[in-house]
Design brief:
The protein is mainly alpha-helical. The protein has one domain: Arc Repressor Mutant, subunit A (Orthogonal Bundle). About 50% of the residues lie in helices and about 10% in strands. The chain contains seven helices and three strands; from the N terminus they run H-H-H-E-H-H-E-E-H-H. The chain has a three-stranded antiparallel sheet with strand order 1-3-2. It is globular and about 55 Å long.
Length: about 140
């Protein structure tokens, strides 16, 4: 991802229905002491950051995926960060890690049913990108 046009931002917001976001936000208006105490804060704690949505997107495109294949597809991520992000996604119930007892070790990653509920949001983000790219 060395091309500036392919930079992944660290903050993503998506909704399929603007009205539902406004209603949800209205419930918390004037009451938010800490963003983490809101559904939005929880969501961002699970999928926020530079790489998590990229990983989910790539796993949705072609799963299961081995660690090195995922690293190769992302490109600009270090092995340490990829490993850390996968562990966090696994801890949050979005990714399943399957280890095969063989030499050399084989590990594959795939999305859980919980993660697949995020796919409509990914589609909305892609549609937004199509509409707004180069504007």
């Amino acid at each position: 991802m060395s091309n500036d046009k392919n930079v992944v931002r660290t903050f993503l917001i998506a909704t399929t229905r603007k009205d539902s976001v406004i209603m949800s936000m209205a419930e918390y208006k004037g009451k938010v002491r800490n963003i983490q105490d809101t559904p939005f804060g929880y969501t961002m704690s699970v999928i926020g950051g530079k790489w998590k949505m990229v990983i989910i997107y790539l796993l949705a495109e072609n799963q299961p995926v081995r660690f090195n294949d995922l690293k190769r597809q992302i490109g600009a991520i270090t092995y340490k960060i990829l490993s850390s992000q996968l562990k966090e996604l696994e801890a949050d119930g979005l990714v399943v890690r399957k280890e095969y007892p063989q030499v050399p070790p084989k590990v594959e990653y795939s999305l859980t049913d919980k993660a697949e509920t995020l796919l409509p949001l990914l589609e909305e983000l892609c549609e937004w990108g199509v509409k707004n790219r180069g504007v």
